[in-house]
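quick one, two chains, predict together pls
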Amino acid sequence: NAGVMQNPRHLVRRRGQEARLRCSPMKGHSHVYWYRQLPEEGLKFMVYLQKENIIDESGMPKERFSAEFPKEGPSILRIQQVVRGDSAAYFCASSTTPPRGVSTDTQYFGPGTRLTVL
Amino acid sequence: GESVGLHLPTLSVQEGDNSIINCAYSNSASDYFIWYKQESGKGPQFIIDIRSNMDKRQGQRVTVLLNKTVKHLSLQIAATQPGDSAVYFCAENFGSYGQNFVFGPGTRLSVLP
């Protein structure tokens, strides 16, 4: 069973360009989460999606950032008009549907995409 | 606001000794906690989890203790090995949908030969 897959692993963009980060959850997982990690810091929650729905985007900047998880294909985190402050590692995690009566389930992480904005 | 923090940002232990990594959380409503290990250049790797209806849970060489009274979580690693060197994060379940996790800043564990 393949784990969470992310691509590209490394992405370099110039200021003003667009960055598209892809995440394929583990087989059987219908919940996807995106986190951002700055060097020497913990992970910051950005957005939580289920198939075709954004459930919680409270951690995502209101402008330039968007996320989707279409019925078919990977989840996409898109950053438009990137700035140097967007440079970070972006991690995707996935989980299965929690058992009945349980609030949540373990999240499994992908290897991350390291975005560098020049 | 809710926060998760760690008492020790760095920890150095001798190979073979036991390691204890601590974590404080502030959201008394949180009911699920996870410890992750992150090696350099890699994504967080699940180690062990615990729900709030438990005080202790054991895995292979790892034990997580939860003290809800003082909102404290700890990870114990027995017979620490060089391969245990990494940054360890605790994560607290948070959010109305029960899916939002708040991560602490992490503790770097260094295992000395």
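Chain A has a mean pLDDT of 90.
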